[in-house]
Specification:
Rossmann fold, nine-stranded mixed sheet, 2 domains, alpha/beta
Amino acid sequence: MKGSHHIIIESARLRYEFDIKRNITIIQGDSATGKTTLIELLSDYRNGRKNGPVRIEADVPCEVFAGAGDRWREMLTLIEDSIVFIDEENRFIRSKEFAEAVKNSTNYFVLITRESLPALPYSINEIYGIRTSGKYHFPEKVYHEFYPIYGKLPEQSAGTKEVVIMITEDSGSGNQFFNSFFVNNGKCISAEGNSRVYSTMRKQDVGRFLSVVADGAAFGAFVARVIEYARKRGKTLIYLPESFEWLLLKSGVVTDKEIIKILEHPETYIDSSKYMSWEQFFTELLENTTKEEIAKHYQKSKLPPYYISDSIRAKVLQILPDELRHILEIKND
């Protein structure tokens, strides 16, 4: 499935309205925030009471797994091109088997859980809470909307004389690119994977300024602990773009009008049955659009020298957050 889908679920008293645009959306939040009620409304609708008090407005079918138990595998084989809502009582969502089922699925999944799901590569931009707008009383409606939980990440600035340690999630192209800026003081190290970013942060000298760069498109399961530690630690900057490949494409290293259109609305082009996360799509896109020129042919494991030339680095710097650009500029002086 592709695209962004606008969903309205309402009863006489309640209304939920939101957009789903990736294969995995996470809804978090404490008790009494409307998560369970959302599942109950969907269950009422799907259990044959379509002419009753619950109304669903959507351009694709909305399905719900409530108390599915071991039947979830069979149920999922019967569903295609739909948005599937599953709450945290279905503990199978934490399993590697479920992650495999999500892979190559034609469905989008909305998972309601307070726990992280490390088996699934979900985006930091698709983790939401449910907010109630207004103070209404029965019989007026209570309007529920989703809001991004990690919309604002810690940002700080390093002084010109500070020693900076940069941590990148990967050891390949992204690490090689950012490492090219550290010609004087400071260093750029790899965490060797998104699950190890937190532990790598903890090993660094707390007196030194720390900058962390990781692929936001698949960092959702790890972002909470990283952000919490960064806020306690201080002197830490977190930058989580979609992916390093997205960063290169966004900077204009490939001059193609079609690329600009894709970056404006990626959800229109990314098929959930082919790409488990947007990072995979952007990697393939960059590889395919540069394969005709040997010097520019992008490789994830080993970055061609073209991408660390002064002209390309200058383009990337222009789209980085001011704080990160400042760090890289002073480390390259």
